């Protein structure tokens, strides 16, 4: 795909002030020139572009291949960098007239596809950080509760064991994965992640354990495990673990078949 903004709007044309509907362009976009079917989809985790309204008018674009730039309107769906008239972005629309893509003049080989809330990297970062904090708390709580383990009912031990096992495996997976990716995505393209198949197998097992923990929510409430506060805490923890597994699944980071 080749895109050249100057072919649509002559360079001599001057921009005019915002003509309204700037909110149509506000959103998050992800470059489509990337892996989609393997773990390499996770390269896009740090590559989203956010477009918002600038306080001085126009649009503020931040993210991969853009940096932080202030754009003002040049034509209906075309904007230029306020500091460089040759630096431009343009937006594409779907058949219904809704803004669906963003294009860069200086990088015409790809397009940014508009994504929703559940696809945003920022949403998944919140899930990962919150999940990491809660899982660490689960492990610490389990260590502190070792003296009382033998006095718990079998169902309680199964439920808490599933939560603990899922937390330990997920924490190990995230620790190893973040350590491997700390070298940068560019180097990973050529070097890869050592032991990736094993890591993705661990995340798959952690996902199954999380589902098992979620299933134990039913007997926890019907047979009266713990206090009401304990059951609520267990339920929320199990939901968070499953949400974390869903997030990893979204990025193709679950299962060795994604290598």
* Uncertain parts: 1-20
The count of helical stretches stands at 6
Radius of gyration from CA coordinates = 24 Å
- Provide the β-strand percentage band: 15-25%
Structural class: alpha+beta
| SS elements, strand count | 8
The percent range for helix content is 40-55%
Mean pLDDT: 86
Polypeptide structure, described:
With 259 residues, the protein is an alpha+beta fold. 42% of the residues lie in helices and 20% in strands. The chain is built from 6 helices and 8 strands; from the N terminus they run ββββββββαααααα. Strands 1-2-3-4-5-6-7-8 form an 8-stranded antiparallel barrel. A hairpin with a 5-residue loop joins strand 6 and strand 7 (99-104). Helix 1 packs across helix 2 and helix 2 packs antiparallel against helix 4 (196-215).
Essential attributes:
about 260 residues, about 40% helix, eight-stranded antiparallel beta barrel, disordered N terminus, about 20% strand, alpha+beta
Quick synopsis:
The chain is of the alpha+beta class.
Topology of this structure?
Blueprint lengths: L26 E5 L17 E5 L5 E5 L3 E9 L2 E4 L2 E10 L5 E6 L2 E9 L5 H24 L9 H28 L3 H7 L4 H20 L1 H6 L5 H23 L9
Antiparallel strand pairs: 1-2, 1-8, 2-3, 3-4, 4-5, 5-6, 6-7, 7-8
Helix pairs in contact: 1-2, 1-6, 2-4, 2-6, 4-6
């Amino acid at each position: 795909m080749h895109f050249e903004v100057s072919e649509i709007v002559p360079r001599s044309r001057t921009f005019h002030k915002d003509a309204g509907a700037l909110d149509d362009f506000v959103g998050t976009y992800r470059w489509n020139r990337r892996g989609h079917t393997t773990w390499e989809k996770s390269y896009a985790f740090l590559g989203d572009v956010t477009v918002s309204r600038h306080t001085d008018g126009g649009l503020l674009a931040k993210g991969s291949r853009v940096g932080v730039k202030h754009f003002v309107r040049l034509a209906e769906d075309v904007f230029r960098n306020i500091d460089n008239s040759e630096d431009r972005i343009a937006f594409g629309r779907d058949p219904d007239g809704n803004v669906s893509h963003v294009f860069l003049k200086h990088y015409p080989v790809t397009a940014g596809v508009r994504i929703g809330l559940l696809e945003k990297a920022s949403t998944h970062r919140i899930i990962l950080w919150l999940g990491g904090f809660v899982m660490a708390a689960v492990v610490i709580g389990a260590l502190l509760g070792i003296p009382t383990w033998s006095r718990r009912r079998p169902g309680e031990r199964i439920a808490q064991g599933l939560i603990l096992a899922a937390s330990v495996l997920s924490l190990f997976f995230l620790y190893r994965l973040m350590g491997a990716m700390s070298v940068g995505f560019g180097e990973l393209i050529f070097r890869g992640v050592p032991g990736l198949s094993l890591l993705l197998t661990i995340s798959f097992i952690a996902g199954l354990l999380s589902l098992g923990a979620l299933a134990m929510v039913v007997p926890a409430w019907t047979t009266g495990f713990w206090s009401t506060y304990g059951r609520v805490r267990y339920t929320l923890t199990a939901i968070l673990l499953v949400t974390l597994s869903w997030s990893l699944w979204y990025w193709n980071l679950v299962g060795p078949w994604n290598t």
